[in-house]
Amino acid sequence: MIHSSSFTRLYFVLAILLAFGLHESARAQTQSESGNKAAAPAAAPTESAPMQIKPQINSADQPNQIELLRKQIEQLQGLLEQQQLSLAEMQKQLIELKARGSFVQASLSSTSDVINAKAERDAADRSPVSGQTTGEKQTGPQKVPVVAGWDGNHAFLRSPDGNFETLFTGYAQLDFRGYAAGIHPANTFVLRRARLALEGKLFRYFDYKVEGDFADTSSTLLRDAYVRVHRLDQFQMTFGQFKEPFSQEELRSDAVQDFVERSLVNNLAPSRSPGLMFSGVLHKGVFEYQLGAFNGKGLLAANTSGTPETVARLRISPWKNSDSFWLKGLVVGGASAYGRGTGGTSVRGRTESRSISFFTPDTINGSIVRAHAELGGPARRVRPNRPGPSRVGTERHNLAWRCCQGLHGPVHLSLDR
């Protein structure tokens, strides 16, 4: 490679040679003029001898020669600059060629890795399976290993690509019912709930859950059995048997309630029923909505009125994405439900222990309108720190309830006619 420093040295050498030549020419001219002046008296011409005319160098030509040398130097300087520009262009092209060569080498390396990996898989497919003879080959589709383990809260089975997943969840609640005086049942221990569930996803966008309560001896064991199409957070569809989206207290999982039993006012809210629901979250959780139609007659019960029970619910978290602990958990919302009863019953008049009844339910024939308002405070993520019941998802513990119990549960308005 020719560097610009070589052209610079060449330029200085030529300039020195030209200056040296100019100096020698001037010195020769000066010596010639001095010699002519010294020889003039001795060689004075006589009248008889003819005069000899010698050529002399005119001193007026010296500036012309200097100007000529200056022009030549300027031409050499221009050529040097052109060579430097050409050299810079060549260096730029060389850098680009090196970069292209690195890219091609990397591409060839990745292609070689892919080819080697494919060759290894082909060789593994052709290799004999343990327990077979050397001449036998593996037949049938190759089995994909399943990942099994514990994620900190649940046991799980999961496919390597994440398209299929099953979580094994469950919990149990033991209650003691004791009475001090009066006419009352016997003091006893009660296994209030014993839930086992399978939940997960199929083909990445389909969530499912099947849950049974093995402590319930008075009705069906099945609690939840539904599939949710969850391709977008903004729009989801759920169908099967699950809780109607009405009461905040009812929708909270039994595993994270403050007490084994819910409040008496929650008897006004509908619970699980077969139906269809559309739901979603907007603006990173600021808005949450649910809209559904259900039979409204209880677990696995068919509709007896011909009119489905429609439920609509909206929740707003204005400071959901805020950094403030006290503001980001603030939630306000409400829900309404409309249905029709034919030969149904009203609210159950019994204590939460389900042991003493105040009154028997009345028969309802006609429209049933429900309204609900809710207020939620700061929340924390629930994660058990010791072996015990699994808690699925993120549940809310309302600090507002700890200050004023009336703000914890939903406020209902039930109009039966």
Strand-helix topology:
Layout: H1 4-39, H2 61-126, E1 147-150, E2 155-158, E3 165-177, E4 188-202, E5 206-213, E6 222-229, E7 236-243, H3 248-251, E8 272-282, E9 287-294, E10 309-316, H4 325-328, E11 331-345, E12 349-350, E13 357-359, E14 363-376, H5 399-403, E15 411-416
Antiparallel strand pairs: 1-2, 2-3, 3-4, 4-5, 5-6, 6-7, 7-8, 8-9, 9-10, 10-11, 11-14, 12-13, 14-15
Helix pairs in contact: 1-2
Structure explained in plain terms:
Helix 1 packs antiparallel against helix 2. The protein is 28% helix and 30% strand. By secondary structure, it is an alpha+beta fold. The chain has a domain of 248 residues: Porin, CATH 2.40.160.10. The strands form two sheets. Strands 1-2-3-4-5-6-7-8-9-10-11-14-15 form a 13-stranded antiparallel β-sheet.
